[in-house]
User: Which sequence fits this backbone?
């Protein structure tokens, strides 16, 4: 499968549905590869695909991937690169059929296989899942992908597998790992997690982006070894950078504590070692694995109701009083019968005093309305806003005319017995191979990392946290994940003691009433927080200004603390 049997070169060309279209060609032509992967699925994507499937039962897959293969399938075959993607979404069998038809039209010999069994919706009642779901999908592991590759597949499409399974599966097929090879599997999971978000591992969305040219970062690849260790790198001459910092940032993204649970193995993130091996090369080794849990996570998507937004522009003086007037007038205009179940007001003070432009002098008052009844967030809501046009605050205007409102989705997680899920590899010749659940499972016992010795007392200076620490954040359903790492050993000695749960709540008032959990990861010089419920019912419900918490880490980095001057004056502190 590989040009060098001791190393398997696995690249990534997609971190989400809508990522850079040209990345497939760039990765195929930029240097040697054995496998090219693409991650097209996220919680919101599954909802989008479910709505596609409602309109047309033949849909439910990432159509972008089919167009990419129309351009690049022949190129992949000419270069001997196998393709493994989760673009099958809710309909992997149909995407596999479309790919075979495409290969015939192009005159390309390509054996296509797919993985199925993640779709739990037909068995909803049997598995005890709630009614009213649009989609219900178990997160499968890498052994189905491996069976497809071992069966001769040139292209493997899956439905909902874990993002890391796209890397774990090729590793199993090439190195012959069994479910008992827990350390090797765990190492591949960590490599897969680094690759899964594409250019986030090569400088994209990176806290210290000004240190590298990230105008057009290349996509990452992993040189995977038989023991599960890897080197993260990228094709020569591509933009961005691979450093211990960019890899650390991605490792903290949407993870939690010491144990990273998966269907094939539980990877011990507290054992990960990162070592720079020259320009754009970071070695990952030392990863320990433990038996996976007996259950599989399942993502459930349902319609939550209907949503509408109106944004009022408040300009100049008396911003707070103008906002209060809008709210009083709006409350008076809506009859009790027409009032939505939820009205949420947010005032963003984007205005500046004595501003040189009108826009810079303006604040935004956002009204979000939600209700199961579309009528209550539709015409009457918009009418109440528009009718204030000549009787409201001075300078009244909206960012846009009110729309009719739209349905929104809700994501939640459930856990099902792994033995009840019918994980199946469908080979190019049509044979169906049942993929058994792990023979040994276990319950993780998370390990809390030891805190370093605190820095000795000394002079401090009030300054932004981001001068000495990086951060990356994201969403998991209604919860937010926020990872923060120090750039030096002394920085870690300060960060581990300074950024407590209590201090985080103080710095981020939106979290002051929430359950916040902190995990300590000394090997990464990092603390990783989970802010439970910060995102309400998840990204599709748009509970807050940043519904996926993508910029939560940058907000934290902008907050000020008393920081030791020895850290601020260190060469590692960016200017």
Assistant:
């Amino acid at each position: 499968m590989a040009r060098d049997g001791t190393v398997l070169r696995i690249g990534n060309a997609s971190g989400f549905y809508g990522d850079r279209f040209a990345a497939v060609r760039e990765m195929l032509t930029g240097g040697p590869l054995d496998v090219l992967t693409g991650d097209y699925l996220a919680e919101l994507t599954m909802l989008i695909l479910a709505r596609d499937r409602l309109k047309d039962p033949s849909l439910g897959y990432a159509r972008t991937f089919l167009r990419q293969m129309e351009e690049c399938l022949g190129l992949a075959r000419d270069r001997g690169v196998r393709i493994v993607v989760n673009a099958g979404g809710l309909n992997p069998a149909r995407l596999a059929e479309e790919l075979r038809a495409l290969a015939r039209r192009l005159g390309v010999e390509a054996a296509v296989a797919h993985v199925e069994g993640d779709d739990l919706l037909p068995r909803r009642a049997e598995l005890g899942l709630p009614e009213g779901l649009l989609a219900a999908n178990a997160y499968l592991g890498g052994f189905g992908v491996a069976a497809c590759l071992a069966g001769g597949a040139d292209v493997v499409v899956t439905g909902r597998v874990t993002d890391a399974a796209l890397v774990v599966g090729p590793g199993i097929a090439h190195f012959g790992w069994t479910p008992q090879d827990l350390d090797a599997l765990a190492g591949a999971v960590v490599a897969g997690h680094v690759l899964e978000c594409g250019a986030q591992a090569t400088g994209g969305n990176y806290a210290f982006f000004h240190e590298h040219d990230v105008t057009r970062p290349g996509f990452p690849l992993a040189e995977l070894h038989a023991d599960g260790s890897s080197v993260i790198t990228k094709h020569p001459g591509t933009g961005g950078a691979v450093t211990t910092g960019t890899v650390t940032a991605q490792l903290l993204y949407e993870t939690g504590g010491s144990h990273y649970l998966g269907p094939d193995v539980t990877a011990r993130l507290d054992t990960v070692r990162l070592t720079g091996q020259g320009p754009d090369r970071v070695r990952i080794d030392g990863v320990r694995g433990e038996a996976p849990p007996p259950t599989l996570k399942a993502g459930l998507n349902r319609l939550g109701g209907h949503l509408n937004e109106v944004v009022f522009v408040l300009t100049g003086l008396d911003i707070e009083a103008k906002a209060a007037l809008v709210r009083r007038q709006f409350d008076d205009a809506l009859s009790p019968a027409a009032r939505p179940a939820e009205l949420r007001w947010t005032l963003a003070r984007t205005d500046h005093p004595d501003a040189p432009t009108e826009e810079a002098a303006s604040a935004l008052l956002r009204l979000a309305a939600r209700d199961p009844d579309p009528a209550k967030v539709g015409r009457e809501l918009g009418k109440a806003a528009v009718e204030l046009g000549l009787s409201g605050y001075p300078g009244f205007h909206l960012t846009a005319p009110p729309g009719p409102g739209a349905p929104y989705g809700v994501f939640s997680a459930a856990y099902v017995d792994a033995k009840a899920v019918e994980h199946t590899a469908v080979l190019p010749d049509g044979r169906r191979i049942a993929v058994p659940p792990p023979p040994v499972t276990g319950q993780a016992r998370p390990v809390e990392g030891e805190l370093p010795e605190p820095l000795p007392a000394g002079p401090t200076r009030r300054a932004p946290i981001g001068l000495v620490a990086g951060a990356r954040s994201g969403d998991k359903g209604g919860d937010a994940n926020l990872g923060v790492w120090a750039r030096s050993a002394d920085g870690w000695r300060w960060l581990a003691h300074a950024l407590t749960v209590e201090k985080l709540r103080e710095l981020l008032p939106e979290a002051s009433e929430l359950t916040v959990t902190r995990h300590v990861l000394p090997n990464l010089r990092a603390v990783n927080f989970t802010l439970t419920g910060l995102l309400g019912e998840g990204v599709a419900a748009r509970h807050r200004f940043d519904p996926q918490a993508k910029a939560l880490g940058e907000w934290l980095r902008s907050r000020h603390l008393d920081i030791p001057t020895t850290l601020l004056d260190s060469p590692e502190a960016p200017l």
Summary: The CA atoms of residues 487 and 536 lie 32 Å apart. The two ends are 47 Å apart (CA to CA). The chain has a mean pLDDT of 95. DSSP finds 14 helices and 26 strands in the chain.
